[in-house]
Specification:
four-stranded mixed sheet; mainly beta; globular; three-stranded antiparallel sheet; 0% helix
């Protein structure tokens, strides 16, 4: 399981959130998003751009979770993680991997 904590500004929420990961060979073609389909990254419906649902609630910390299999990263070392938003304001906190 891949995860990150996020806090969406209640007064100015983004329209889309995206998490992306790189592999040891520099491949950044593994991403998941919530909300509108506005960030021009990857091919929608594939491991490079997997829709995970609507935006989380605003004004509270929420843990975003992505099964590693949804973005074709099971058993893969991940040296990089990217946090992306479209519009609005967001605070990000801890992110990483966890076993389920």
């Amino acid at each position: 399981m891949l995860y990150a904590y996020v806090f969406l500004d209640r007064a100015n929420p983004p329209l889309e959130l995206m998490l992306a990961w790189s592999t040891t060979d520099g491949d950044w073609q593994h991403a998941a998003y919530w909300g509108a389909n506005l960030i021009p990254y990857g091919a929608d419906g594939t491991a490079s751009r997997r829709y995970m649902g609507p935006l989380p609630p605003t004004g509270q910390w929420v843990r975003l979770e992505v099964p590693a299999s949804a973005v074709e990263l099971e058993g893969t070392a991940l040296p990089g993680m990217n946090f992306v938003l479209y519009g609005g304001r967001t605070a990000w906190d801890y992110g990483g991997t966890a076993r389920r």
